[in-house]
Amino acid sequence: MDRKVYTCFCTAVIHKGHLNIISEARKLGEVTVGVLSDEAMIRYNRFPTCTFEERVAAARSIEGVANVVVQKDMMYDEVIAELRPDYVIHGDNWCNPEAPEFFIRQNVESCLAKYGGRIVDVPYTFDPEVKRIDDLDRERLAMPEFRRRRLRQLIRLCPIVKTIEAHSGLTGLIAEKTVVRQADGRLDQFDAMWVSSLCDSTAKGKPDIEIVDMSSRLRTIDDIMEVTTKPIILDGDTGGLAEHFVYNVRTLERIGVSAVIIEDKCGLKKNSLFGTEVSQTQDSIDNFCAKIAAGKDALRTKEFMVIARCESLILERGMDDALDRCRAYVAAGADGIMIHSRKKDPAEILEFCDRFRAADAATPIVVVPTSFNTVTEAELAAHGVNICIYANQLTRAAFPAMQSVAQDLLKYHRALEVDSRLMPFKKIITLIDG
Ligand code: SPV
Ligand code: MG
To answer: How far is the CA of 190 from the centre of ligand 2 (A)?
Structure first.
């Protein structure tokens, strides 16, 4: 009987490298190709540029492939237990201890060791054409049509969309490229970026009162877009006048932003973290609904999301007011709601989510756990939250670090004393492509 050979693919673009693996695999036995599911690809830091069905069709079309199966996890435990292949074959790029695939190889090795299966490492195909195909596939994700729809895809595919603040090309790169390996070897990364009004204003040395105008916010977004592929959620403050909002929504949709979140305040907007310590005016339900409806009406795709942010808990108007408003905003066409709180205890946010979800199972819920920071992503997801935004931690980390270095340069009149706190520029520029 033929021996069983297994390999896993995560692309619809079949190139020389894949064909080489298949031809080596055929020499060993009957070839089964696993196609990585969308969910697994996202965790693996490879957002799919085509559908799962297209990837399956591409694998099926390769001559010599006997079976195609779905691989639901980047780790091989399940698929190996099911198929018990004699060989798992892969490019030898996963032998490099620095490569993200290295831990996957270790996982495969231990799965195969249970019954005497073997790994076959095929020399990786270094070919300019293969590199070009891989680069093109990745770069497509930065195009507006791919980036814009990616947020809705993530909401569908992820237990919770992990979103981090970005206000520059550099913070965008941190959002794009930070990947950690968890204790079980799985990779984790952020899914999306939040262009915060607070951090965008702070980076420009301005207060968060809508003084940084849309042209300037667009400049920031463009800087981020130039060096990233992940989807962008814009903090749209109050959205301004409805007559202006419709123009802005069109621009954002056209350039590939995925969502704008506007808050139900009017007049001079102040940051929500001030709560009732400053005077802030909540808009009427009717006015705000009209603004949402106007924004939705201006859209040209079904991908862009207008998300309504409710400030009732921040302004201490009560849970019922928050629920009534959010339901009205959804009825007016909002594609999602954001509920905010400045309490340290997450109880009020979780109560809101439970009560909102009891009557509405579908509308995405967004939260910003800055004050209620003990809550975990898993707890939020269990209460029906779809998007968790880490709205300002990068700025708050960078500011004191820069301030203390500046103080010490003045204090010591030289740079030696601060050096141990600094990252060598050589390391910083590894973040930067090109
Ligand atoms: C922002 O990041 O600008 C926000 C969230 O609006 S918060 O600062 O918590 O109001
Ligand atoms: Mg804001």
So the answer is: 20
Q: Look-up: residue for tokens 């996982």?
A: 107
Give the chain's domains with CATH numbers. 4-134 (3.40.50.620), 143-391 (3.20.20.60), 397-433 (no CATH)
How does pLDDT run across 78-122, given as a tens digit for each residue? Answer: 999 999 999 999 999 999 998 878 889 999 999 999 999 999 999
CA dihedral angle for residue 93, residue 96, residue 99, residue 105, rounded to 10 degrees: 80
Map tokens 């435990």 to a residue: 77
Report residues whose beta carbon is within 6 angstroms of any ligand 1 atom.
196-198, 208, 235, 271-273, 368, 370, 391-392
Atom of ligand 1 nearest to the CA of 271: 10
Ligand 1 mean position to 42 CA, how many Å?
27
Report the predicted TM-score, pTM, of the whole model to 2 decimal places.
Answer: 0.93
Percent residues over pLDDT 70 in the chain: 100
End-to-end CA distance of the chain: 50
**Dihedral angle sign, alpha carbons of residues 433, 258, 387, 210:** positive
- What is the C-alpha separation between 174 and 5, in angstroms, rounded? 39
The token pair that represents 158 in the structure block: 């992820």
